[in-house]
Amino acid sequence: MAKILAIDVGAYSLKLAMMESMRKATPSVRFEEFLNQGTPLDTLSAALGRIFGSKISGVDQVFFSLPGTSIATHQLPLPFADHKRIEATLGFEIENISAMDMAALAFDYQPIANPSQDNRLLVGMALRQELVPWIQQLSGLSVEPRWIAHPALQLGFLASASARRKHQPLPKNFAVADIGHERCCFFAVNASNSCDIARVFPSGGKEITAALSSAFGISEQEAAAWKEKHGTLLPSNEHPPAAHKAAEVMQQALLSMERELRILLKMREAQGQEPIETLFLVGGGSQLHGLDSYLSKSLALPVELLPLTGFRENLPPSAGQVASLLSFYSLTAPRTRRFNFRQKELAYKSELDFLKDKLKPLSIFALCAVVLFLAGGFVRNSFLKTDEQHIDDALCALTTRVLGTCERDYVRAESLLLSSSNPAPELFHPSAADFLSHLVQYLPPQFDIQFEQILIQPERISLRSKASQKLDIDALSAALKTIPCVGEINAGKVEKSRDGLKKNFPLDIKLACPPPLEPDNGHP
């Protein structure tokens, strides 16, 4: 069972409908209407809290009817019907017919089925600056809409749902007008059961209320209450004179709506379409008494009120937009292309879609990490193999020089070199730490000497010493020569210290260690 929430933010009231759709069963709909108090967002927040409580949950999809009258619709002929080619060229075609920059528009299309003409598209456009704030605000209320519908294009589904419930066929060419408080949405269907005209224009019940308020000197609230309770466009002789005057005032206020409807009907006929057989009325403004008869006489075609009977519970006329959204969902297959202003970068992203978008870069990152790991391992192993070969060659050269045989096994070579018959002293090549250790070890304790500076270089050692006057430098040199690798020793100029008790002298020691063994690369 799917739960679908439809939202219609009107100028007079907010309409919400929650549908629980089950297969092979008439869907059940809960409808709520809230008068606007404060901003539309405040009204919507309060309405959602009343329906869902503190936490909104259990909603599978949200449909939203875009409010306002800044929605434009155009017919666009194209020489092809391929979806991919349409997607590639539609933006350029819209740029030619629109005065707005493409970056400021959100648009979508649906094809017009008409075998007698070339391929035509019905393109709807809306301003991004009006669309994006609604997406952000609805997302903040946890009801981000999956579908943002054109308020006129969905009206045909409303008539189809009502006819299906009553088991009555619709006329081949019909139109639906949703009359609201500040706008009127018009939708026309041709004989191929395809929409060929969809328009939104500013006209509605607010103009009638304002005209009554001005004519009778009453507030708009009083005028609206009188219009809903007593207003009629076709008063009889039994009505008081005030009712006849009010009818004339309301007829004058309806002239702009009549003119727009007449223009749309003539435009449709000029495009080669068959005349409209029936005009259906829906919306809160359609409930004005006598409006259907008045428009029928004015437009010279049958006009009927469209009952919203496509669901288990009959909905009031003011629920036209939300009912059309729910009918739009119920009567279309899941994979059918549906008109939706949320396209491209504005497209709805569920949690799964978000994961899909992140999966590609994460996969590329993981692949790069694996490639770098394998490449790093290969390079590291190559260097280690080279170093291992150098070490083996050095070990072979060392054991060949000392033992007379080439040993590449480190454990065996170590065992042979540490054996009693091993001439290991030939391998001695001291470091700086070794020299300092031997200096302390080999000097006799009776020498009263202090080394103020020791400079150890690869081939020589410089000592700056301070000793007592009685120290024999030759005896010191002889003691130093017992240290391994120490060769010739040169004593520098001897100077007395300032107190005359010590003498300062430098020693320059040349090292005579055997050179380090180089690997014999020619040895097998």
Helices and strands in order, then pairings?
Layout: E1 2-9, E2 13-21, E3 28-35, H1 40-52, E4 61-65, E5 72-77, H2 83-97, E6 105-112, E7 120-127, H3 128-140, E8 147-149, H4 155-166, E9 174-179, E10 184-189, E11 195-201, H5 205-216, H6 220-230, H7 241-253, H8 255-270, E12 278-282, H9 291-299, E13 303-305, H10 320-330, H11 351-402, H12 410-417, H13 432-442, E14 449-456, E15 460-468, H14 473-480, E16 486-491, E17 495-496, E18 502-511
Parallel strand pairs: 1-4, 4-8, 9-12, 12-13
Antiparallel strand pairs: 1-2, 2-3, 5-7, 6-7, 9-10, 10-11, 14-15, 15-18, 16-18, 17-18
Helix pairs in contact: 4-10, 5-6, 5-7
Structure description:
By secondary structure, the protein is an alpha+beta fold. The protein is built from 14 helices and 18 strands. It has helices spanning 40-52, 83-97, 128-140, 155-166, 205-216, 220-230, 241-253, 255-270, 291-299, 320-330, 351-402, 410-417, 432-442, 473-480; strands at 2-9, 13-21, 28-35, 61-65, 72-77, 105-112, 120-127, 147-149, 174-179, 184-189, 195-201, 278-282, 303-305, 449-456, 460-468, 486-491, 495-496, 502-511. A five-stranded mixed β-sheet has the order 3-2-1-4-8, with helices on both faces. A five-stranded mixed β-sheet has the order 11-10-9-12-13, sandwiched between helices. Strands 14, 15, 16, 17 and 18 form a five-stranded antiparallel β-sheet that branches. A hairpin with a 4-residue loop joins strand 9 and strand 10. Helix 5 (205-216) packs across helix 7 (241-253). The longest helix is centred in the C-terminal third of the chain and has 52 residues, at 351-402. The chain starts with a strand and ends in a 13-residue tail after the last strand.
